[in-house]
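cron nightly-structures :: item 1 of 1
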Amino acid sequence: MTSQNPVFIPGPTNIPEVLRKAVDMPTIDHRSPVFGKILHPALEGVKKVLKTTDGQVFVFPSTGTGGWETAITNTLSAGDKVLATRNGMFSHRWIDMCQRHGLDVQVVAQEWGEGVPADKFEEILTADRNHEIKVVLATHNETATGVRSDIAAVRRALNAAGHPALLFVDGVSSIACYDFRMDEWGVDIAVTGSQKGFMLPPGLAIVGFSPKAMAAVETAKLPRTFFDIRDMAKGYAANGFPYTPPVGLLNGLNVACDMLLDEGLENVFARHHRIAEGVRKAVGAWGLSLCAVRPDLYSDSVSAIRVPECFDANKIVSHALNNYGVAFGTGLGDVAGKVFRIGHLGSLTDVMALSGIATAEMVMADLGLPITLGSGVAAAQEHYRQSVAGAERAAA
């Protein structure tokens, strides 16, 4: 029997019924004009979510990992120098991909729980007088640790250093969840996927290219075929793909963008922050702490919660699934067994979040952790009640 409980993993997220229906559609001729009526509105919708007027959007049948590969193979050549920080599993994986493609990656190691070190980047970029560094990588939201980094600060570091490097941002678990400003922040390539803020099943790599990134495509020499944006652009111009497209997912993306824009992006961001704050209030009431080391780094899409030393956090995840049919996220890499993760992104409400908080309390109590049942729920309830009351006062 399939559980009707919401999931609290940091993606794939819960899928609204309207999007499930949008994805579930009859087969069409993807070489007919009908497909263009699905494709182009979806691309335009993504541009609005990214807050770009200058950029071009490309969507591939893949995941965020394919989006990373799209970014580097379309703009770089073997031996090119890349600057990145390793502060979590997903920044680590992007670095690993670059190294496998023969790129020279200068890695700034950070504690898992810290953000992207814009100040250190500025020092390195200023010292790079010959402008050997071609790209700066930044993970906006490190999904493994629940850390949000300041992308605007990274852009300021590039500008202060007077450096021409491209800025690539992994926004897989941030875009469509909280504010992302591709044009204003000078992001040259933004990478995301369908299964998080866009509330769809996995299967789409969504990538935005700035004009500067588009220009780099013409001189890049890394091999690419499936992820060649030049082929994709030619397909778009003819209302198609260079190969068979995932029509149902693209139809879902079109509807998802409409849903986000109808709710209002600022309202979407406020909803994510409100729900996340409720989870954080619960964590405080439990006497636990987050992996993110400072409040300015707290993610509004996922909270990585540290457990007491000598306790295996994986027991919380397995017990929740086996006994209550509720999915939480495990710790990854350096924080494996040290944290469990509550995803609070995509299709989620205050009431749904409370069910996840209550389940986490039951699990921890079952496993003998010193948790008072109802403590986290009460703290989150009070926050949500105050948020609703504040909104009512503001509307009056």
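cron nightly-structures :: done
The first strand starts at residue 56 and ends at 61.
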